[in-house]
Amino acid sequence: MNTLFFPRALQTYWTIGQHIVEFEQAGKMKAEYGKELLIQLAKGLKIQFGKGFSRSNLYQMRQFYLKYQKFQTVSGKLTWSHYVELLSISDDLERSFNDTNFSSNCI
Predict the structure, then answer these.
(1) Domain residues of the chain, as ranges?
(2) Which residues, in sequence order, are CB contacts of 9 under 8 Å at separation 6+?
């Protein structure tokens, strides 16, 4: 498996999340009610790029950006799957603790 893929993929997912929040949602934490923003974006991206852009994946990318607003805080040692698991932790302190433990175990 190409480990160089992980940091590049993470940066891509983070950038997509940033675009959704900053441009599609005009900097708001959530899209306006009833807009079905992620569904519409997913349809367009699937047509243009194929698999990997479901509504749930876009939701996770948006959450990834919101939880890690400085990309420098993202560990290149972790995979996207690790981050998806970490995103399910609502408490920031607990997520940070688990992030550190995941990173330490990946060394």
Answers:
(1) 5-75
(2) 80
